[in-house]
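Take a record.
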Amino acid sequence: METKKEIRQRIRMEREKFEKACFIEATNRIAAAVVSHPWFLGERELYIYADCKGEVGTGKIMAKAFQRGMNVWVPRVTGDTMLFCRVRGMDELKPGTYGILEPTGNEISEGEEGLMIMPGVAFDEACHRIGYGKGFYDRYLAKHRKLRRMALGFEYQVLAEVPYDEYDICPEIVVTERRVIGM
């Protein structure tokens, strides 16, 4: 089996080859699946990443959450810590750590309940996830166990099997442009 590092490199190359039109169409399909999913419709609190570097786009999901009056929380990284801060609009996001859009406000979530929409580099059929190697989501989710966990990925990111460690916290489901894995 490939190592996590090898998989990260391979998926990065796949991202670079993914055509813009295909990216847009796939992102739109994933967003439509998310905003019609019962977990999204049943939650008041949404924890969601701001996409960058070829990740599944989250702008339409955030827009729908704002429209529904949901509380939207976006991560901010400080050192080894990731916190989720409330945003009330896309204009409250500015480039931060690693060039990723981060909230400008300081209202920090307690992370008690809600839906966590997380990114990933690769996933498998059992919903194991390879992240970017820093462990931010694993550490956050270990402390906030009541959050529902949904990951977004393109179909090319889903492999038959990926390596994982006992401390890795898996999404409960993975939404791609073709299917929902884990339900």
Q: What stands out?
A: The longest helix spans residues 20-35.
